[in-house]
Write a structure and sequence with these properties.
By secondary structure, the protein is an all-alpha fold. The protein is built from 5 helices and no strands. The protein is about 75% helix and about 0% strand. Helix 3 runs antiparallel to helix 4 (about 110-140).
């Protein structure tokens, strides 16, 4: 053991001494990659972001939470199909109407893909509500699982698109 430690010590000493003896510069590698700040929005990009913000914050995020809560309450607590339907029908319409509003917002070409993703995630939320409503028609709770997959994909996209449009936004739990 002592011999092994001696060999390691001598090796380290030689490496250190030979690097400095030859005048080699000591370089360090950053442990974290450098992250560049995104370019500031143009006036048109800012206008789109500001037009979408109230829908995002006041309509979409709360509605997504209510959609999840409705499914959980049905599955875990009450199994009341009428209550589930009463909660989901307006949510489905809300996602539909909001999707149309977002699609109508003027968007600069640089943010077209972000807007398209936002419209698609609203479509996924609407599909999720529609799938959950199938439980009220046929009683098959398997629809809740299918709906949850759609909602999960929509929620992930919501966070990603939100990060690109509003980087300082809080992240939902």
């Amino acid at each position: 053991m002592v011999a092994l430690l001696a060999i390691v010590a001598v090796s380290l000493q030689r490496e250190t001494a030979s690097g400095f003896a030859r005048g080699a510069a000591v370089t360090t590698v950053a442990s974290e990659p450098l992250v560049t700040a995104p370019a500031p929005f143009t006036a048109d990009e800012e206008a789109f972001s500001e037009a979408l913000w109230p829908l995002h914050q006041e309509v979409v995020e709360p509605a997504a939470g209510r959609l999840t809560a409705a499914g959980l309450a049905f599955a875990l607590d009450d199994h009341d199909a009428r209550r589930l339907g009463a909660q989901l029908t307006p949510l489905r319409q809300l996602f539909h109407d909001t999707r149309e509003k977002v699609a109508a917002i003027a968007v600069p070409s640089s943010l077209q893909s972000a807007r398209d993703r936002y419209v698609e995630l609203l479509n996924l939320y609407e599909q999720s509500a529609t799938e959950m409503l199938q439980v009220t028609r046929d009683g098959d709770e398997g629809h809740l699982i299918d709906a949850q997959h759609k909602s999960q994909r929509a929620a992930e996209d919501l966070v990603e698109v939100g990060d690109s449009l509003w980087p300082a936004e809080h992240k939902p739990n």
